[in-house]
Amino acid sequence: MLLETKVEEGINHECKLCNQMFDSPAKLLCHLIEHSFEGMGGTFKCPVCFTVFVQANKLQQHIFAVHGQEDKIYDCSQCPQKFFFQTELQTFTEYPLQSSMGA
Questions:
Q1: Residue range 35-77, pLDDT digits in tens
Q2: Residue extents of the structural domains in the chain
Q3: SS3 sequence, the chain?
């Protein structure tokens, strides 16, 4: 039902911020991380421990390996869903039916 439950590979996953398509939710999340850090000099800082990475996918790997659900800092005001990045929350709240229904 929530955005994170849709993890099927090969299904088109669209960035609701720029309409770019991805073939996996992991690739879409990495892309959303890049949106989060646009105009910040090409570095990606962990929102939890502030470790800096030069690639978005390395930050993504770090977050999944080191930080858990309890470390997510952006809360949805409509449901219990939480996110590491504001762009994830923005996409979720602007397009809740599409995110939860898999469209």
A1: 888 877 889 999 999 999 999 999 989 998 999 888 999 999 9
A2: 3-98
A3: CCHHHCCCCCCCEECCCCCCEECCHHHHHHHHHHHHCCCCCCCEECCCCCCEECCHHHHHHHHHHHCCHHHCCEECCCCCCEECCHHHHHHHHHCHHHHHHCC
Q: How many CB atoms lie within 10 A of CB 64?
A: 12
Residue whose tokens read 């504001």: 86
Cβ neighbours around 77 below 10 Å, total:
7
The tokens describing 9, both together, are 């590979």
For the cut 60, the answer to whether the pLDDT of residue 3 exceeds it is no
Q: Which amino acid is at 32?
A: L
